[in-house]
């Protein structure tokens, strides 16, 4: 079986030649023709929207993961995906009948890429069908849902992973390695600023019943999650403040902008901004007694750019979703341990912090996390 280093070398080569290739070859398995004989994770994507499409394209370059099925409520999309990705009829499902996956030995895992409010029930049904589940962020709408999802996957003896693609991103991992190595000294401060100006007021992201909230659920979660992996600790308190400039577009329960602060056991603090009202906002800054790291962009699709007190981060950009799926296949098939966890417990930790942020916005008080 090929090693991770060999894979990274290969895919790095692919990334170098990509700009020279016609766009239809982007992510194509033909870029790397070396045969791979090991096990392959056969994935059904549930939700064939914008991000599902991106994941499907990126998976074409994977060796250990393969798009093998779909779950969709739109027959026309299923037909289109079938012919584009050579998916047999027997691996196509809709939202009513996907429990029948239990009788399909040709699907190993379901990747849930639907609006946030649907994740809870869909993950639990996929687990009950005996399939490993990858779920997009946010894993659920709140910690209660998250706990039920984690339990359901435990009960079904399947793995639950969350689509935290940054946990595999090479520059991010280099900063984490440097922090673990003590290069920044004692960590004192993290700043995470995540946002974009959201368009169409009628989209599900601005509908509380489907999104579960606003910018925090969608984009601010990167700062919540990033604060934890950059500082390397779990926060013990949260304070947060919400601002709204457009209450028509951002209705009750849909946050436009939230500022939040996290306190960590070591005394490190973090100050973060989540917003649907500013563009060009994708920045991480980590400060320690001996040095710093700054990344901008820090969580977009990349390439991620960054530098530390030691110089520019030069790790090769690899399509995030390709790397994520390749690594998740190793986690599921080989029991590989990722550097930064991506399991259901990890998703649940973020949901507990998100609950606390919303609570603090409403009460105006600091919320303790236990
Ligand atoms: P999208 O609107 O482009 O796609 C959503 C899909 O879900 C559509 O195909 C839609 O038809 C389907 N769907 C099924 N039931 C639906 C319902 N009741 N209402 C509305 N749509 C329904 O959204 P998206 O951008 O693909 O986001 C999907 C999920 O992926 C979200 O949880 C989002 O947070 C996550 N996401 C993650 C990343 C990332 O970088 N990890 C990026 C984008 C989106």
Structural key phrases:
9-stranded mixed β-sheet; single chain; oxidoreductase activity; Glucose-fructose oxidoreductase; disordered N terminus; Rossmann fold; 370 residues; alpha/beta; Gfo/Idh/MocA_domain; Dihydrodipicolinate Reductase, domain 2; binds nicotinamide-adenine-dinucleotide; 6-stranded parallel β-sheet; oxidoreductase
Describe the structure.
With 370 residues, the protein is an alpha/beta fold. It folds into two domains: 18-163, Rossmann fold (3-Layer(aba) Sandwich); 166-316 and 344-368, Dihydrodipicolinate Reductase, domain 2 (2-Layer Sandwich). Helix content is 35%, strand content 20%. It has ten helices and 15 strands. The chain has helices at 4-17, 50-59, 75-85, 116-128, 143-155, 170-180, 208-211, 215-231, 320-334, 344-363, and strands at 41-46, 65-71, 92-93, 109-112, 132-135, 160-162, 187-195, 237-243, 257-263, 269-275, 281-288, 292-295, 306-308, 311-312, 367-368. Strands 14-13-12-11-7-10-9-8-15 form a nine-stranded mixed beta sheet. A six-stranded parallel beta sheet has the order 3-2-1-4-5-6, sandwiched between helices. Helix 2 (50-59) packs across helix 9 and helix 4 runs parallel beside helix 5 (143-155). 47% of the residues are buried. The model is unreliable at 1-31 (pLDDT under 50). It binds nicotinamide-adenine-dinucleotide (NAD). Nicotinamide-adenine-dinucleotide (NAD) is lined by residues 47-52, 73, 113-116, 118, 136-137, 163, 165, 204, 210, 218. One of its GO terms (molecular function) is nucleotide binding. Keywords: Oxidoreductase.
């Amino acid at each position: 079986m090929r090693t991770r280093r060999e894979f990274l070398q290969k895919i790095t080569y692919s990334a170098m030649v990509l700009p020279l290739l016609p766009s239809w070859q982007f992510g194509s398995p033909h870029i790397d023709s070396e045969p791979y004989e090991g096990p392959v994770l056969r994935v059904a994507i549930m939700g064939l929207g914008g991000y599902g499409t991106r994941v499907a394209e990126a998976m074409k370059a994977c060796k250990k993961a393969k798009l093998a099925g779909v779950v969709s409520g739109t027959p026309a999309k299923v037909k289109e995906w079938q012919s584009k990705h050579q998916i047999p009829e027997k691996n196509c499902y809709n939202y009513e009948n996907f429990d029948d996956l239990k009788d399909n030995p040709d699907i190993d895992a379901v990747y849930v890429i639907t609006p946030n409010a649907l994740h809870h029930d869909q993950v639990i049904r996929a687990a009950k069908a005996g399939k490993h589940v990858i779920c997009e962020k946010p894993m659920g709408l709140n910690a209660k849902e998250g706990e039920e999802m984690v339990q359901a996957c435990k009960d079904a003896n399947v793995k639950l992973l969350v689509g935290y693609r940054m946990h595999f991103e090479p520059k991010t991992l280099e900063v984490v390695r440097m922090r673990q190595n003590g290069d920044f000294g004692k960590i004192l401060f993290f700043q995470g600023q995540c946002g974009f100006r959201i368009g169409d007021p009628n989209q599900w992201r601005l509908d509380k019943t489907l999104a579960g909230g606003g910018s925090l659920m969608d984009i601010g979660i990167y700062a919540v999650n990033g604060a934890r992996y950059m500082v390397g600790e779990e926060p013990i308190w949260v304070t947060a403040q919400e601002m709204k400039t457009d209450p028509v577009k951002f209705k009750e329960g849909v946050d436009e902008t939230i500022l939040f602060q996290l306190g960590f056991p070591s005394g490190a603090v973090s100050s973060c901004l989540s917003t649907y009202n500013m563009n060009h906002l994708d920045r991480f800054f980590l400060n320690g007694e001996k040095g710093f790291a700054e990344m901008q962009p820090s969580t977009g699709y990349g390439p991620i750019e960054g530098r530390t007190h030691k110089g520019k981060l030069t790790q090769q950009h690899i399509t995030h979703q390709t790397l994520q799926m390749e690594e998740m296949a190793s986690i599921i098939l080989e029991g590989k341990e990722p550097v930064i966890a991506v399991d259901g417990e990890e998703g649940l930790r973020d949901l507990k912090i998100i609950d606390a942020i919303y609570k603090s916005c409403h009460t105006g008080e600091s919320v303790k996390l236990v």
